[in-house]
Amino acid sequence: AEEVRVKREKGYVNIGGFTFPKRYEELKDQFDNLEVHEEDVWICSFPKTGTTWTQEMVWMIVNNLDFEEGQVNLGHRSPFLELSVIFDYRDMLKNNASFNPPPFLEDSIGFVKSQKSPVCVKTHFPYHLLPKEIQNGSKKPKMIYVARDPKDTCISYFHHSKLLECFRGDFNEFCELFLAGKVNFGPYWKHVLPYWDKRNSPDLLFLKFEDMKKDLPKVIRQVAEFLERPLSEEQVEILTKHLSFESMKQNPAVNYELVCNLNKQFNLTEGGGAFMRSGTVGGYKGMMSEEMIQRFDDWIEENLKGTDYVI
Ligand code: A3P
């Protein structure tokens, strides 16, 4: 397990100015050349910004609130395209040769390809590393991007990295990595702003975690309209309840129990904590020093110069 831990800690590469686990190099061509289906929906985000929340919302809307099928693990229902990059199941085999990975983990690209449209694809890829067919405009699936205050995102990512990616440093070290763009899929602004630039495109809907917290029914209606699958007010109400933090925290299909247990089982992390952690806005205030908040605010101001992005 120690060998795997060290590999996971050190094995990063820089591609197109973004930080990735080394395995991305091996699979990049497959992502670039993926055949895209216009009936699919792409849920794109920087990690820890409300991706799972958005995926569950989108999947439910696309599947006409099928709560029975909705009990299937979200990893099957809304596959994470580059999961094989983030979570190399071969690491597991080193610790237990008889480990039988779920198909969406063993070969996440193959799994996405094997699914019948409409697939609700999850990806953390920055816009410029999406499949060529999306970038050159030859395929235009509907895309939903979700963003979140980077200070809350950073805290959530810190806990996530402890829970699932065996990060060993303290919170301040993690903040430094985050600001320097040295966390997976970073730098943050280079990720958010190219999607923000496309927010008026008819194929892209830009959401914010904070708006989902403020008025979830409104966002549900907006997403349903964007997906051309309007819901009755009763359905909006039912879905709002289903998507509450309390309900999702209890829901084993979306709360990442499966992945957390695998990590614990293979002794890959120190464990502790839950994927559905606090689900709040402004939680950074209780955790970041005044000095670090100032560093973030300066960094935000500098990166947002000349843009109309508001956190
Ligand atoms: P916290 O760690 O701040 O609690 P992602 O899915 O992109 O990894 O994002 C995970 C973050 O979204 C976590 O944030 C998690 O608690 C939060 N989240 C997930 N479902 C939520 C919900 N229904 N309501 C509020 N927050 C939610």
Shape: globular
Question: Unreliable runs, pLDDT <50, ≥5 residues?
Answer: none
Average of the residue pLDDT scores: 92
Fraction of residues in H or I helices: 40-55%
Highest-level CATH class = Alpha Beta
For CATH, the homologous superfamily is named as P-loop containing nucleotide triphosphate hydrolases
**Could you spell the SSE succession in H and E letters?**
HEEHEHHHHHHEHEHHHEHHHHHH
Please count the helical segments.
Answer: 18
Oligomer description: single chain
* DSSP strand tally: 6
CATH topology: Rossmann fold
Radius of gyration: 19 Å
Short description:
With about 300 residues, this protein is an alpha/beta fold. The protein has helices at about 1-10, 25-30, 50-60, 75, 85, 90-95, 105, 110-115, 130-135, 150-165, 170-180, 190-195, 210-215, 215-225, 235-240, 245-250, 255-265, 290-305, and strands at about 10-15, 20, 40-45, 120-125, 140-145, 205-210. The protein has one domain (about 1-305): Rossmann fold (3-Layer(aba) Sandwich).
